[in-house]
């Protein structure tokens, strides 16, 4: 049997007093601080553990030294003049087929993402 439509709407409101608002503000502030501080502390602990493991046992390559070396290499390469030999070509294709038509990065006809069309 279908329900009949409501004839009235009743609204329930919950209001906080001044003291309750202050308590809620203190709670939300504390929760916000803990939500920010815990990930920062966890990240710091992971970093310290990583550095201890690297220094004492040589478990891993030092990621930060690798980044420094890569940045130095990038600075050197920025000053170089770019030629077609400057870029790595993992597919060993020249960008052109034997008949002279352009190919995409897969070596297929066409010059875009969808071979032969775009």
The unreliable regions are none
User: In oligomeric terms, what are we looking at?
Assistant: single chain
What's the β-strand tally?
0
Query: Helicity level, as a percent range?
Result: 40-55%
Q: Roughly what is the average pLDDT, rounded to an integer?
A: 80
Order of helices and strands, N to C? HH
Structural class: mainly alpha
Largest sheet: none
Q: What's the N-to-C terminus distance?
A: 60 Å
Q: Number of helix segments?
A: 2
Rg, rounded, reads: 32 Å
Amount of beta strand: under 5%
- Overall geometry comes to flat
Structure description:
With 118 residues, the protein is mainly alpha-helical. Helices cover 48% and strands 0% of the residues.
TL;DR of this structure?
The protein has 118 residues and is mainly α.
Which tags fit this structure?
0% strand; mainly alpha; 48% helix; 118 residues
How is the topology of this model organized?
Elements: H1 18-57, H2 63-79
